Structures are given as structure tokens and as C-alpha cells.
Amino acid sequence: AKAPTCTQSGWNEYEACANCGYSTYTEIAATGHSFGNWIAEIPATCESQGTLGHYNCSLCNKNFDEQKNELNSLIIAALKHNESDWIVQKQATCTAEGSKYKECTVCKKVLASQTIEKLEHNLVGYEAKAPTCTQSGWNEYEACANCSYSTYTEIAATGHDYEKVVTAPTCTQSGYTTYTCHCGNTYVDDYVSVTGHDYEKVVTAPTCTQSGYTTYTCHCGNTYVDDYVNATGHDYEKVVTAPTCTKGGYTTYVCSCGSTYVDDEVEPTGHSFGDWQETKAPTQTENGEKQRSCHCGKTEYEVIPAIGSNDNNSTAPDSSVNNDEGDKKTGCKSLISGEAANLLFLLCSSVIVFIKKKSYSL
User: How far apart are the first and last CA of the chain?
Assistant: First the structure.
């Protein structure tokens, strides 16, 4: 027997006559290819072969293209490298060599490499700088502009040199010390507590109308008032002015502080005259005179008509005056007779009444 293949038929075991055409031969048809899934192409690289895309028959293990044509070979020849220009990998410096290389522009494999020689220093000169309180200085030096090479030598900062000014504490503010460096840096420290006020007191005694108090004054100028004492009130002494015949009486109240007022007024007592005393006897032709006096010194006068007068029973109106004004009535005491005397008497009486009213008004 012979098994069929993908392209050829097979047969089972059989017999055949060598002399004639007799045979038990039975043909088995070809199976045909079993392609399976398409196998993708593997591209060739610069150094490795590739594989064509294909079908593979699982029965005969032959390979076929997309049109099911049998492929004699699946090999794709390897590619050649495509060399690049020099690529700088590391720049040369004044202190270290550099490097460069060439690569394949397709597969990026490095094809060649070289060393780049070190550069010369590009020296720049720098002037010296003196150190300050907070920053270091340096001496004159050179440094490369392309690398870190330098002849720099640092001079340490000097640190602050402080002068101190002490501010003494006051009654209300703390004391402290101000530290100042010539560079301008400053700070405050060494605080001292406030001293508090030291008061001197001045006592102002109370008066009749104003309270007393104590004024507390500190040397710093701070001041306040406390310890109030009530006003004493007025302590009056009284002076009694007795009433007179013509003026009312009253009491004057006087306090030691100068305050004064008048109260307890009393009406005038009025005159208290004694009996009439004849001071001049009347005659046939001349009027006489009588008078009476008050203890205050006031004197009243009245005319006694002349004996030969037509009105022997009448008395003249009040013609009183004070003793110290007696000279004002002397002109009325002249000896005048008859009607002229009566007229003169009436005139003098009017004057005396006017003077009397004047004295009462005082």
C-alpha cells in the first residue's frame, strides 16, 4: 500500500497477475494541501536574514506565497549597514577627553568610535575682593571660562564688630542695648524691666467749697490725682449790725475763705424823741422856739408863735434838722413881726420838712 500525499494519490495493498491485467488495485485520492494561517514576514536587518511571509502546509511541510504558489526558499538576504557621519557622544573639556562615533542609520549599531583630545583652558582674570562681615572675599585669581579650573583662594568673612548703645529703662518702658556694626547690621538685646513710677505727693487741703486731694507726680512727668477729701463747707462768723432810727439792722456772715452774705434783716427802730424843751420864749412881737431830741442825735424844732400873733394857739409844722445842720435854720430865727413873719415861718417850715425827708431816705 502507499499513502496518498498532498499532490499524489495513494493505494491500498493489492495483488496483480504478472501475466494478465488482473489486479485488486484501489486508488486513494491525493489529500490536497493544508495551509493553515498566514505566517507574517520577518524583515531582514543589517546583519540578519529575514523570512518571507508564507503559508506552510502541515502535511507536506512545503511553503507557499499568498497566491498558493510553492516557494523554494523563505530567506530574505541581510541588509548592508548605512554608515552615518561622526556623532559627538561627549564634548571634550579642558580637564577631560571627549568621544565620537559612527552608527548605522538603519539599525543604530555603532560602527566606529574615536577619542576627542582635551581642550586648552580659556583663562579669565579676576580682581581681588576684600571680605565683609557676612561675605567671604578672595585674592586675585584666574579661572577657565569653559571648565571649573580656577586658582581661586577664599578669604573668610570677618564677622560683625558691634558697638553697643545702652538705653536705660524708664518708668513705663523697658531698657535695652542696641548693637550696631559698621556695616549697618543692627539688633537689640539685653532687655531690662521697666523701673515703675516713683511718685512724690503734694497734698492740697480741702477748702469751704472745693474738695481736697493729693497730686502724685513722677520725675518722668506722669501725674495723677487721688485721695480726695470732701470740702469742709463754710464756717461763718456773724457780725450783727443793730438797726438805727432810720436804717434797718442786719447780720453779716463772714467765712475765713472770704465768702460773705447778709441775712436776718431788721426794720429801722424809728426815732424816739424826748419831751419838748422851750429854748426861746415868745414875746409880743417875736416867735419863740422849742425842741426835742432823739438819742440818735436828731433834733426837731418848732416855732412858738409870738404872743401878739393872730394864731396864738397854732404851732408851726415840723421844722426839725440835725444838730450839725443848725446853721441852716438860723436865717429863720430873725425877729420879724406881722404878716412877714408868718410868711417866713411857712417858707422855713417847708425847707425843714424837705431836709427831714432827705435824712429819712439816708
Answer: 192
CA distance 337 to 344: 10
Tell me which residue has cell 580656577. 150
Question: 359: how many CB neighbours lie within 10 A of its CB?
Answer: 16
In which band, very low, low, confident or very high, does the pLDDT at 32 lie, cut at 50, 70 and 90?
confident
Tell me the β-bridge partners of 304. Answer: 288
Inter-residue contact 70 to 64 (CB < 8 Å): yes
Q: How many CB atoms lie within 10 A of CB 292?
A: 16
Length of the chain: 362
Collapsed DSSP state (helix, strand, coil) of residue 338: helix
Strand pairing report for 50-51 and 321-322:
unpaired
- pLDDT tens digits along 75-131: 999 888 999 999 999 988 888 899 999 999 988 889 899 999 988 899 999 999 999
- Any bridge partners for residue 215, and if so which? 202, 225
Q: For the chain, what is the largest distance between any 2 Cα atoms, rounded to a whole number of angstroms?
A: 250
Q: Which three cell numbers stand for residue 59?
A: 502535511
Does pTM surpass 0.85? no
Q: Which residues contact 214 (CB under 8 A, 6 or more apart)?
A: 201, 202, 203, 204, 225, 226, 227
- Compute the distance between CA of residue 301 and CA of residue 282 in angstroms, rounded to an integer: 14
Cell 581642550 locates to 119
Question: H helices then E strands: how many in the chain?
Answer: 1, 27
Give 117's DSSP letter. P
Whether residue 24 contacts residue 17, with contact meaning beta carbons closer than 8 Å, is answered with no
Dihedral through CA 302, CA 304, CA 306, CA 312, nearest 10? 120
> What CA–CA distances, in Å, run from 215 to 203, 212, 221, 230, 321?
6, 10, 12, 15, 65
**Cβ pair 169, 192 in contact under 8 A:** yes
Q: Which of 337, 218, 238, 327 is nearest to 283 (CA)?
A: 337
Query: Mean per-residue pLDDT for 299-317?
Result: 70
Amino acid code (one letter) for 63: N
How would you list the strands of the sheet with 298-304, edge to edge?
277-280, 288-293, 298-304, 321-322
Q: Among candidates 72, 81, 77, 70, which has minimal Cα distance to 51?
A: 77
Which DSSP symbol is given to 38?
A: P
**Grid cell in block for residue 228:** 480726695
* pLDDT at residue 171 tops 50: yes
